[in-house]
């Protein structure tokens, strides 16, 4: 794709990276590949796992699904609680379950406030894509909640986690959705 964009630039991120320069110096191929790999991982894996973790939580807590169907205004708080309860970055999970910071940390509480989780890091290590991931999750989950009456885990499903020390999520989440 990088080679294609060199020949035919477009209005996209890779074309923008190719145009970028500091004092007339452009990024080298290894730097471009590094940026692309980072953006693919951070921009795709994070949101994909956030959505999967949210759906798993809705399956485990059907009352939350019903709460959201009745009041979509709870969705931003719910997304924050999913981020805390099932941290996308695995090693942050222990901090997000610290009982000194979160009363009843093993409970999923869509109205938890304050919810100062560390799912997207903190300080200079805060994820630049966090607002985009939240927006993508909000739009996707609003659509799912609007389209389906309820969701359930497919019977006899063996859930298998991602083989990663970094990302926390499932390889696959087979669910049944019900309309009307």
Write a structural description.
This protein is mostly helical and 180 residues long. The protein has one domain: Cytochrome P450 (Cytochrome p450, Orthogonal Bundle). It is 46% helix and 7% strand. It has a two-stranded antiparallel sheet with strand order 1-2. It has a two-stranded antiparallel sheet with strand order 3-4. α3 (29-60) runs parallel beside α6 (130-147) and α5 (75-85) packs across α6. The longest helix has 32 residues, at 29-60. The mean pLDDT is 91.
Write the layout of secondary structure elements.
Elements: H1 2-7, H2 13-19, E1 21-22, E2 25-26, H3 29-60, H4 62-70, H5 75-85, H6 130-147, E3 150-153, E4 175-178
Antiparallel strand pairs: 1-2, 3-4
CATH architecture: Orthogonal Bundle
Placed side by side, the strands forming the largest sheet appear as 1-2
Main beta-sheet strand count, sense and barrel state: 2 strands, antiparallel
Bin the helical content. Answer: 40-55%
**Spatial extent as radius of gyration:** 19 Å
Shape: globular
Helix/strand order, N-terminal first: HHEEHHHHEE
The count of helical stretches stands at 6
Please report the first level of CATH classification, the CATH class. Answer: Mainly Alpha
> How confident is the prediction overall: mean pLDDT?
91
Extended strand count: 4
> What is the domain tally?
1
- The separation of the N and C termini measures 43 Å
Let me know the CATH homologous superfamily.
Answer: Cytochrome P450
Structural class: mainly alpha
What is the fold named in CATH at topology level?
Cytochrome p450
